[in-house]
Amino acid sequence: MLKLHNLSKVYRSDEVETVALNSINIEIEQGEFVAIMGPSGCGKSTLLNIVGMLDSPSSGEYIFMDEDVAGYSEAQLSEIRKHNIGFIFQSFNLIDELTVEENIELALLYHNIPASERKARVAKVMDKVGIAHRASHMPSQLSGGQQQRVAVARAVVGDQAMILADEPTGNLDSAHGQEVMEMLQSLNEEGTTIVMVTHSPAHADYARRTINLFDGHVVTENLRAAE
Amino acid sequence: MFLNYVKIALRNILKNKLYAAINILGLAIGLTVYLFGGIVAEYEYNHDTMFPKHERTFTIGSILSPTANIGVNELNNTYTAMGPLIKADVESVEEVARTVRRGYLVTNGDKHFYKDIQFADKELTSIFDFTYIHGDASALSDPRGMIITASAATQIFGTTDVVGETILLNHEEDLRVRAVVEDLPQNSHFNSFFIIDQKVEFFVPLEALNRMAEWDLNGNWNNLSGGNYVYVLMKDKTPVAEVTRLVDEVYKNHADQEMQETFITGMKARALKETNTAVWDMIGMPAIETVQLLGVLVLVIAIVNYTNLATAQSMGRVREVGMRKTLGASRKQLLLQFLIESVTIATVAMVVAIVCLELLVPLFNDATGKVVSFNYLQTLPWLVTTTLVVGFFAGLYPSYLITKVSPIDALKEMTLKGGRGSWFRSLMIGTQFMLSIFMLAVVLIVFFQNKKVEESSNIYPKEEVLVLKRLNVESIREREETLRQELLNIPEVESVSFATQVPFEQSNSTFSVTPTKGDEAAKFQVNQLDTDHDFMKTFDVPFVAGRDFDRAISADVRTSTDVRRSNVIINEMAARNLGYARAADAVGQTFWGLQSEEEDAPAAMQFDIIGVVEDQNILGLHNDMKAWIFAIDPVRHFYAAVRINRTADASVILKVEDVWKQVIPEYPIEHDFLVGMFNDVYQIYKAMNSVLAGFAFMALLLALIGLFGLAAFMARGRTKELGIRKVLGASIPQLVKLLIWQFSKPVMWAILVALPLAYFASDMYLNFFADRINTQIVLILVAGAVAVSMSWGVIGLHAIKVARGNPITALRYE
Ligand SMILES: Nc1ncnc2c1ncn2[C@@H]1O[C@H](COP(=O)(O)OP(=O)(O)OP(=O)(O)O)[C@@H](O)[C@H]1O
Ligand SMILES: [Mg+2]
């Protein structure tokens, strides 16, 4: 599905130069569930952002579905992203002024989908994640777990091939965290590629493969044998 | 404690420089415009205060009946006959003086000057205490005396020490200088009448006018020329309404009944210090009040601006407020803190505004010839009050809003984020744009109406007619034919016509005619223009039927006033009024003047129609189309119109001047192209438009500055949301549209409210014109569209910047 080749990301601010990613080589197959782990500041989020085309690399190749997208313009990236990638953030990133339903619908709003179909898909997805009874609530009226379920719903409603999750359980207690992990797992079983950053080894166990980053380098890749 | 607040306020201003700069700039613009309007209004309403008796002095004006139909509502003078009657009838009057203005040739040896002479009752010097350099207030008691101003004396004699010198008026009347006074102040009604840009330099006893022009010293009931005044000095300070009542009673007792019913319905006294503003009452345009009102409106926009920005910005200070509250600050203290901050900003803005005024006032004085001054000591209370009021009202809402939140909410930055207060913000934006659109619409309407006036004046060859003026002297009348022949000898001169009136001259002398002799019931008013054989040719007036005057037909020229019959050309409107459906039907027909009832009055005039010309608005400008008759009468002409070939260069003027010098050596030539005479009046409309445009520009500028600031704050508050939308696939145009739409709704509402307001306000202006534009509503919509697109531009620029930002920066530090 995607392949990173000698990919680096360097942040330059005034005097300081931070190498967040240093010549990374990673390959991810269609339908994989990959966990990315590593200490704070090792470049996990940076990696995920580049994979998600929210950020561009300083050098190296990024081949996404057989296309080298490293040099693509923002508009081109946005187009690819829109149709292939969904996001789940640690801090949910829901819009406070919109209801649960509207927040989920937002992911379809920019896809030229008729309103009736949008409504139907949103309703289906809300059922799936079990948030339908809260459809017209505001995010601030929900618990953290419920908010993250909304975020998951929003990430999957567009039927994207790949979901990127940056510490999706970081703000949740273990029961709610498990709930979200199970949701991701069932999505993966349905064929969605999932790349997830996490600090929890238990949650990383849901993934088939774990990539350990340290200081911008890939240190180990553990493949977990299929049960 | 108080100083401490000011210190915090200043620190906050310095901390947030861009925000403070936008706020100060906005308020400073508002204050400058408001103060300027106030100063100008104050100046206009306080003329003549240098005359010690000004509080007891009044001028008498006349209220016109709607049937008078001369284009104004009232006049700033009245019949000269009223003067002696007021003096005789009203006990509480101390002194009455009349002045009659006439233009005359003033001669000292071989030096000639055309000057306006103020013929006056000798009582004038007891009402007005002029500053005498030489001679004294008895000067006008000498029936051959004269008062002259210092600069006129210097111009004519080269010195001011000229008491006893002789001045020859119009080659016929010798007058002796009895007193030299300092130039009359610019801010007195004598010199500030801004339509006629002429100074009063000479006072001559009315007796001289009596000798020269048989002017009846008791005055008359038929002349209301501009520039004449009837002054009344009361024994005691009297309310102006009381003076009006007293003189109105005199008028009701003495004036002819029919005149009271159909022409002048009553008298209106005016305090001397407001006499100069009479012109606006006359034409029914409250210009000074409008300037004041516009100043206030612009200030309101500036205050709204501040309120908006401060409210938006205070979001960023909720934490500070929460902290202060947690530490024990009371709501009152916090309120005070925020109000002192806004008053501090208002004070800084006021200082900036005063600097602006110091630059603006001299420019204004240069442009208008006025002597507006800005007296700090006198205006200090006004300035201080304004600052406090502006600071208070501008800061009230944001202070109220921000100090209302509970400490916990404040610390969590909860309350101010969402919908709350946004209806208020929309209302404020709406108000600003409503006022801007309103002003812009009025400017556009005035502009296009003016343009229409100018375009309709193009029926005359304005640039090809050189008008020679001041020909109304018998000895010049006698030389007309010589002058014409000599002028026609100049190759570039195509024709020459002498006339009592040329187009655009605002002189409106009418009389009644009727289709059948003695039929009073069918009478209607016509304007008469006396001229010669070449008027139609010179001014390109097209014929609809019949023929032009012909030198071969002797009946075309009326040789004496004893001849009671005259060949005339009429316009289509006159033909219609006479009852002819087709212009051609009128040719060869006759109509009549009315028989005067006075004893030994001459017989009614018989008019034989020889031709009909197209309807043309000879008075032009704002006037109605009128019925006209043209005749060749034995009267003095005021003008010679010299039609010059289109290809001629400026040297032709020198040739015309040479011819004049040859034929009429004893009178200096005075000339102007027809376009110049048009502009004399037209410039007033243009000036009005410029003033309005200035205000509208300021208003719109302020509204846009405010919107920009607001968009900046609002977008900052929505960075996270925009980031999310972007991650989810929103394109930049989609985000820009989203941001723009947020501000568009109040602007749309503003258009809806501004529409009727602008409609009524511009109607006031348009009502003044007979030939109105009919695109009023379109223009208002255009104004709305301009405001909307400019606001879109401002927000859009900002929105693009925000929307292009990397969504990660927006999301990562949440
Ligand atoms: N915009 C930026 N400018 C400069 N340096 C940055 C920027 N973003 C990230 N970095 C640096 O890059 C490195 C990697 O950051 P990254 O956010 O990817 O870490 P992380 O592995 O996600 O950490 P955490 O587990 O705490 O989320 C860090 O040292 C960080 O300071
Ligand atoms: Mg991270």
Task: Provide structural commentary.
The complex is a heterodimer of chains A (227) and B (814). Chain A has 227 residues and is α/β, with parallel strands linked by helices. Chain A has a single domain (31-56, 75-221), classed as 3-Layer(aba) Sandwich (Rossmann fold). Helices cover 34% and strands 29% of the residues of chain A. Chain A has 7 helices and 10 strands. In chain A, the strands form 2 sheets. A 6-stranded mixed beta sheet of chain A has the order 6-7-8-3-9-10, with helices on both faces. A 4-stranded antiparallel beta sheet of chain A has the order 2-1-4-5, with helices on one face. The longest helix of chain A has 16 residues, at 174-189. Chain A is globular, with a radius of gyration of 18 Å. With 814 residues, chain B is an alpha+beta fold. Among the domains of chain B are: 74-283, no CATH class; 458-680, no CATH class. Chain B is built from 27 helices and 23 strands. In chain B, the strands form 3 sheets. In chain B, strands 1, 2, 3, 4, 5, 6, 7, 8, 9, 10, 11 and 12 form a 12-stranded mixed beta sheet that branches. In chain B, α11 packs antiparallel against α16, α16 crosses α26 and α18 runs antiparallel to α22. The longest helix of chain B is centred in the C-terminal third of the chain and has 44 residues, at 674-717. The model of chain B is unreliable at 414-420 (pLDDT under 50). Chain A binds chain B through residues 45, 49, 54-55, 74-75, 78, 81-82, 87, 89, 91, 93-97, 106-107, 109-111, 154, and chain B through 417-419, 720-721, 723-731, 734, 804, 806-808, 811-812, 814. The complex binds adenosine-5'-triphosphate and magnesium ion. Adenosine-5'-triphosphate binds at residues 11, 13, 18, 20, 40-46 of chain A.
Quick summary of this structure?
Chain B: Keywords: Cell membrane, Membrane, Transmembrane, Transmembrane helix. With about 230 residues, chain A is an alpha/beta fold.
